[in-house]
What we know:
Blueprint: E1 9-12, H1 21-31, E2 35-40, H2 44-51, E3 62-63, H3 69-82, E4 87-92, H4 111-132, E5 136-146, H5 157-177, E6 183-189, H6 195-201, H7 209-221, H8 232-242, E7 252-256
Parallel strand pairs: 1-2, 1-4, 2-3, 4-5, 5-6, 6-7
Helix pairs in contact: 1-8, 3-4, 4-5, 6-7
Amino acid sequence: MAGLLAGKTILVTGIITDASIAFHVAKTAQEQGARVIITGFNRLRLIDRIAQRLPEDVPPAVELDVQNPDHLATLADRVRALAPEGIDGVVHSIAFAPRSCLGSGFFEAPWEDVSQALEVSAYSYSALAKALLPVLNDGASLVGMDFDPTRSMPFYNWMGVSKATLEAVNRYVAKEVGGRGIRSNLVAAGPIKTLAAKAIAGDATGPGAELARLNEMWDRAAPLGWDVEDPTKVATTVATVLSDWLPGTTASVIYVDGGFHATIG
Length: 265
């Protein structure tokens, strides 16, 4: 039986380990019939080794530092070499903030650190969409990974601001690409145990203690419950947004958090 993404070519950014949300998105996309291309930042050999754990082979990672203008300027040509037929979907799973922006006092982060967090975590969504426009097929789907920024969270600080900015960027990207039937949406996931989550949660009261406390609170408050160990709900939702099954949905944030965002714990 054909999968939800049969015949589609999907570009996935942000794989760091096999615990990364991006890895599970790539895995689910392949299981649903997609051909997957990945990008990598810095440790390309390591990323290629991680990618060998996917169900199907993928080409070597395309190098992409979203702060490097040359990488962005040449990205379409490098992707076209791997996918002459163009690509049908893009997953933006890129975020970074210097340590001063996470966990420290909110007022303590200097602008040079905040500006980097905003550039990598929010502006890069627009930069990536622009860079890939020449190889995006009409009717393609852009999906960015979000974390609900509507409330302040302990430790999250300027990354929360970056995610709020990302939501605004998404709306404008959707406006720019909609003329070609290209959709742009974000998937706001609940906390998942990844390297990024561990960095965000910190270890002020012992390694992983804040992440465990966050998971306990989230699981208790969410109507459907929540498990930081299970990325499959998020990955399958991203695959659905990449598919043709949401043809009228764009400029939206789709929550996959067990309903936590709508509940007072």
